[in-house]
Amino acid sequence: YHSHPAFDPNPSLRDIDTQAKYQSYFSRGGSMFVGMIISPYNRNNPLPYSQLTCLVISDETSSDGSYRLPYKFEVQQMLEEPQWELVLEKTQWIIEKYRLSHSCVPMAKIFPRV
């Protein structure tokens, strides 16, 4: 995710290109990669919460062929309390799966200054 702090969360051409690259990278491992753009301080937004755009980039290109087409999808806000036991279970699964990964960053380790 990234933010467009003070304007609409519509993807720029750079956003589209970056998202397409991440999708390509993550798809090699069989994973999907959903992009999110958040606009927390847009003065044009009358609502009391941030604007959010979720998107994926298709393989289709624009009519002039200069960029791949983004597809936005709707997000529904969850009004009920999350199922915390399920959240904890999934979080623990992620921790166990990746804690010994060769690319894991030891967050508790103090790194020396360079």
TrEMBL record:
PROSITE patterns (alphabetical): MPN (PS50249)
Name this polypeptide is given: MPN domain-containing protein
Superkingdom field: Eukaryota
SUPFAM superfamilies listed in its UniProt record: JAB1/MPN domain
Residue intervals of the MPN domain: 1-55
